[in-house]
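Appendix B. Raw example, untouched.
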Amino acid sequence: MDAILLNFQAVSLIVRMMAEDWVELRVNTERDVMIGRARAARLVLICGYALMTFAFTVLIVLPSFGLHYRHLTNLTDHGRLLPFQAYYFYDTDKSPQFELTLVIQAATMFLGAITYTSVDAFLALAIFHVSGQLENFRHRLVGLASRKDFDSALRDNVQTHIRLIRCFYEFQLL
């Protein structure tokens, strides 16, 4: 239970830091960098869901039309094939049992794929966000010496650096 609470606190801190970063964007170049990273994260998300849809189609939809991907054995394969090979304590060839088992396997696969893909998408979003923040931080450091208000710019950069270190620490907790 403590591990779940610790991970929830780490995730909520990362999400809060990401929201604060989007609110405090001051310069258009920083905003453009962050939008580019968000687009890359969105592309990863779209690819993940496309792969999930393809897997669902191959595993659930095509076998419904008689196109099976599995290696057929004599151990558990009877007249009607289910997407996942397993030992069942009931006869899956009968009509209501087959359809119910197929629906349960499809729902289980769909929920598992959604969960897995959503976690991957969140981690990709967080990693792309931090990489965008690091790029913005690098651009701020390059122009630090030429700024007129060096002390306040240095203070802001130190605070940003501490926030990024805290964010990396929270990533390690995940």
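End of appendix B.
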